[in-house]
Design brief:
This protein starts with a helix and ends with a strand. By secondary structure, it is mostly beta strands. Helix 2 (about 20-30) packs across helix 3. Helices cover about 15% and strands about 40% of the residues. It contains three helices and 23 strands. Among the domains are: about 1-50; about 220-304. This is Kelch motif family protein. InterPro entries: Gal_Oxase/kelch_b-propeller (IPR011043), Kelch-typ_b-propeller (IPR015915).
Amino acid sequence: MAELTLRNKLAEILSKPNNPELEMDFRATCSAIQLDTSLDDPPVMQAYEDYLNAYQQKTSLYNLKGDRLIIYNTETETQEVKILQTPQPLDLYTCTTQLPNGKLFCFGNIAPFGNAALIDLNGGIEVLPSGTSCGFSSCICFNKSVYCFGGYNKGYLTLSSKFDLDQNRWFQLTPMPRSDYQCHSIMFNGNILFSGYYNRHLFLYSIDIDSFSTIPYEFAIRRRKILINAERLYLIECDKGGVIYESEIGSYMNWIPIEKTIKIDWSTQQVYCSYNKGGICIGIKGSDYFKFDLKEKRVIELKI
């Protein structure tokens, strides 16, 4: 029970901006819930490792491109390329999410061995049981399960499923209220908030009761939307201009446009975003990188 509480507290910390004082922040969290803060205790050590891995995920952008895994570190502004150990290039319609152990969970049309796999950061691949055949889904990890929403296979899907990492099997969940694809998911107060491509509103999935709520606010453009969880929530409409919306603190109901003319080519399907150092970091096709500075409200081109 203590370990579960600790992980919940860590999830709260991870929803805030990156904190360079990681260990101090972690120990303060342990102390607040009256848990021994010694890193020698297995539950604490495991939670701390999860925390560090999640921090690494926040500072890196990952892009699968054929037989390569491209890792861009937004703190050091350096790029590393790993050659994947696969006999054929991976499909570009694959979605990925990083697990607490640092591996990438991949789901989609990743021929030749099915549509689900784990990729370690050295390029090794572990084949997993296949889920629903589709591409352009979203996936996000929470509590040793990966949740997948939406997708495309001869039409837009209401796909809602999870892969249990301990049991190594898929479970079907309540279908989405409306079909969509190119969805993008974030954790918000223990639930999953996600956007799609064609639906102008957002969805909130309650993990505990396996149900969806539709967020009534409608955005101006029916195009792909990317969510970022920082001290506030941010939403990018990947269309002409690239509109960025900012939410009220602790809310997903009220959104204000803060920038309407981000001069980036959003036409590609391969757009990856993260939050770091007071800005939204954006990767395009695994070759161009930018940061939108939230304080100065301007786009900075990052080095490679």
